[in-house]
Amino acid sequence: MKFAFLIILLVYSISVYSQSKLKPGFDPEEYRTLLEITERTVDSSQYTQDIPYPFSCQRVFRSDSVGLNNRWDLWIRDDSVAIISIRGTIMRPDSWSENFYASMSPATGMLNLGNNKLFSYKLAKSNRASVHSGWLIGLAYIGPSIVEKINEYYTKGFKEYIILGHSQGGALTYFVTAYLNYLDFGTIPSDVKFKTYSSAPPKPGNLFFSYDYDFMTRGGWSIRVYNSEDWVPQTPISVQTLNDFATINPYSDRDSMVKNMNLLDKIIFGYITSKVKNSLDGSKDILKTYMGKDIFKASISKFLPKLTEPVMADDMYYYPCGVPVVLLASDDYFEYMKTHPQPSYLFENHLMEPYYYLLNKIYFEK
């Protein structure tokens, strides 16, 4: 009887898994459709003619532009997979200020948005985890409406979601994914499944946020796609100090390293390591000031005057997240770019068309 029960349970588990439309890992066809959707997050006058419409999907919702001009769309795929598509940076100063506000804040805490609106969030378990302050503000304004739509569409039978974004939108996919996974039990149904595609994403937080996020999405449920010629995934500017290592490391216990040295070597070693430490700490403090307090005072507080300045973490060591998928540029790519000039020279390798070209060249051309 016990053996028969186990057989039934195994068959049921296989059946449930086979019914899932979402599969872990990078799917080039899936990502191509997502790029076609991403192109439609902007206003219709900005569409690229070379990127076709995603006819297997239909947009069913578009949020208002909120906070620092953040917006997201909800699309439904033919197989009933829902797609949360988060818009990236637009040519508005408030949208850019969200990127430039690049100090870090604790990955768990609360933001005071003003008018008695508090946004409580948890993006990691580790108390050493920190995240980009500007994109945290972006999450605060779009997160609640995403939760609302997930619950609404659950009643219509939608339980599988792709979380999608390019550029700033790609950074926000990390925040939305972590936020949804750490919501209190019962806030959204427990059987809702998420898969994340972060396209051309900047680095979202520090090393300990990355560890937590990659463990949470282990098994191929969060993909990071980037063009090898694109500089945006290399940002924000980052400084690793001697405090950004694991607890046990050679820099935290210099005494044990020098105990067998003679006096002169100890003096030289101590001088060099102290100078390195002070230089790194000084660079970190400069970034925290210019990209944190100064940007908040000069920009963020002007666009969101009722927002209380977020708590600042003592960290500026940004680290990437997600399973990497590199679209490696070849000679063909550079020839293509010569004949297909992009609207912005600075972002010519970052826009949708170069990504679409490389994807097709690498995965679909024989």
Element layout with pairings:
Elements (H helix, E strand, L loop, with lengths): L1 H18 L8 H11 L18 E6 L9 E6 L4 E5 L6 H8 L3 E3 L1 E7 L2 E6 L7 E3 H22 L5 E7 L1 H14 L11 E7 L5 E2 H10 L5 E6 L26 H5 L4 H41 L14 E2 L3 E5 L3 H9 L12 H12 L3
Parallel strand pairs: 3-8, 8-9, 9-11, 11-13
Antiparallel strand pairs: 1-2, 2-3, 4-7, 5-6, 10-12
The CATH topology comes to Rossmann fold
CATH top-level class: Alpha Beta
CATH architecture name = 3-Layer(aba) Sandwich
Rounded to an integer in angstroms, the radius of gyration calculated over CA atoms is: 23 Å
Low-confidence stretches are 5-18
The total of beta strands comes to: 13
Profile the largest sheet. 7 strands, mixed
Strand order of the largest sheet: 1-2-3-8-9-11-13
Share of residues in helices: 40-55%
